[in-house]
Amino acid sequence: MARRELEPYEKIERSIITKYRKELWHPFIDAVAKYQLVNEGDRIAVCISGGKDSFCMAKLMQELERHGKVKFEAVYLVMDPGYNEINRAKIESNAALLHVPIQIYESNIFDIANSQDHSPCYLCAKMRRGWLYNKAKELGCNKIALGHHFDDVIETTVMSMFYSSQIRAMLPKLHSDHFEGMELIRPMYKVHEQDIIAWRRYNELEFIQCACRFTENCSICDNGGGGSKRQEIKNLIRRMKRDTPDLDQSIFNAIHSVCLDTMPGWTYHGEEHSFLEDYDS
Asked: Of 25, 31, 64, which Cα lies nearest the Cα of 199?
């Protein structure tokens, strides 16, 4: 009997666990296990913005839900903050192509953020996060999953040192301060962006880029605008890796092995501490 020809979405799914098993599936599973991101009985809102990262995460989560040992339920949530018609249609067509059963909810976040003269990007990001928590809780979810990857983690660390005078990292999971019982997880914490791009290209997929209305005027937008601080750091790390190929991994390893004995000051749970506190003890 002739073998059935795979549907396009099935070929895409298979590429995750075959051709890109080492690059995508293994680091995804490693992060889920190491950081205890998914637990028995979880109902997780997988948040999809429409870009390559969130759709790749959605496919990884689908595979985990189907074949993982831990039983959980995923809801694939798209918040429309005010996308233009082209971007909205692209998100819907990609979801249909990839067989991701999205639920779309409307909001006017772009309009509200765009009316602000001060820090519209910060306001937009804060509002989007709050909206997602709120909608996920309405749907009976106890977690939201975001598509931040390995490169986001190390870039955030370097950005905080260069531009915020702090050493801050991006945690693989954290409890919500304002939505009791809700948790944020980052399942692609160990997945490299270059491997997501390779998967996209191999499967000839096209996703929306930054859909933000004010990226051109925003110096701190996280969506990769040419003049953004994040893009500056991304380019810097790329250049330095030419001479030190493991530089990015060294940054990642560093945030997992901070030696407080050598720190003159640190903050814990919002309280500042100094090495002088027990210097003579």
From this structure: 25
- Of 258, 254, 249, nearest in space to 192 by CA: 249
Sheet architecture: strand order including 43-47:
102-106, 73-80, 43-47, 143-145, 183-185, 173-175
Query: What's the pLDDT score for residue 211?
Result: 61
Q: Could you tell me if 145 and 46 are in contact, meaning their C-beta atoms sit under 8 angstroms apart? A: yes
- Coil, strand or helix: which one is 106? strand
| Structure token pair of residue 61 | 């989560």
220: which residues sit within 8 A by CB, 6+ positions away?
A: 121, 122, 228, 229, 230
- On the 0-12 / 13-18 / 19+ scale of CB atoms within 10 A, 112 is middle
Instruction: Please write the tens of the pLDDT for every residue from 60-84.
Output: 999 999 999 999 999 999 988 888 8
13 closest CA partner among 2, 27, 1, 24: 24
CB 34 within 8 A of CB 27: no
- The phi, psi pair for 260, rounded to 5°, reads -65, -20
Cα separation, 76 vs 99, in Å, equals 11
| In the predicted structure, residue 3 carries a pLDDT above the cut 90 | no
CA quadruple 36, 40, 43, 46: dihedral, nearest 10: 40
3-state SS assignment for residue 273: strand
| 176 vs 182: CA distance, rounded Å | 6
Quote the CA–CA distance of 273 and 265 in Å, as a whole number. 6
By C-alpha distance, which of 101, 19, 16 is closest to 63?
Answer: 16
pTM: 0.90
